[in-house]
């Protein structure tokens, strides 16, 4: 949790130095519902890659404050289940998930603390959902069995998770279409005759549908959280391996990678020139992918050394 606080404090300090920090003061007195709406809107923009770093840091700050307010208000208890949570409060279960996703998008020179902070938020989300009995038995069974990390087990996990994800997406689509049909019917009825006493009961379905929608959204978020957590763990392991190699070999490792990169670039240009009259050009090799090459090279060497030692 120390890493989480360090990353959060660093991001807050950077935001205060920015002119946009004035907007933070405007949001200081917002109640939780309004704060969550603003934060979830920024999360939605970030998910569609429509948000710059300033917006991402703003979203992280808003979500962090949402998280603090949820804790202070004591909205969720460890001795409750999902049935004890009011429909109006269900959406706040998503705060640590949104925080984990947006934290992962923060760009800074040392990415490892960002990865650690993001994983901590995702684990918090999963832990809360497990306590409230929101995680499927299949997912819990997989996590408790601690099966060997084989290709077959990973594939089975992904297939099961994909099915749950599609089921949640289908449920949300059904609710959306159902509400739209009812809205059209009510609009047509209102045009033909005024709503009589008792006919407003049709609106009562909205409360149940809202609950269904939030539960489906949480189920979908859980699928994504497990997948993202797996991905972030792997990325952290690879970056730490690269750091270890660099600390051990120093500049020799960087020169080795640069020499290898130069050879690959020369080979690419040579092959591209030969292919030019016959095919569309391939994607060029740029410095932007150097870090990924370092990671892949480290993983390759690790894999080869493992095989040769057998």
Give a structural overview.
It comes from Oryza glumipatula. One of its GO terms (molecular function) is protein phosphatase 2A binding. Pfam families: TAP42 (PF04177). Helix content is 75%, strand content 0%. Among the domains are: 2-148, Serine Threonine Protein Phosphatase 5, Tetratricopeptide repeat (Alpha Horseshoe), CATH 1.25.40; 250-308, no CATH class. It contains twelve helices and no strands. Mean pLDDT is 78; it is low at 14-20, 276-291 and 293-306. By secondary structure, it is an all-alpha fold.
State the main characteristics.
310 residues; Serine Threonine Protein Phosphatase 5, Tetratricopeptide repeat; 75% helix; globular; TAP42/TAP46-like_sf; PP2A regulatory subunit TAP46; protein phosphatase 2A binding; TAP46-like
The CATH superfamily name of the domain at 2-148 is TAP42-like family
**Percentage of residues in DSSP E strands:** under 5%
Shape category: globular
CATH topology of the domain at 2-148: Serine Threonine Protein Phosphatase 5, Tetratricopeptide repeat
Helix-and-strand structural type: mainly alpha
Total number of helices: 12
- CATH architecture assignment name of the domain at 2-148: Alpha Horseshoe
**Rounded Rg:** 25 Å
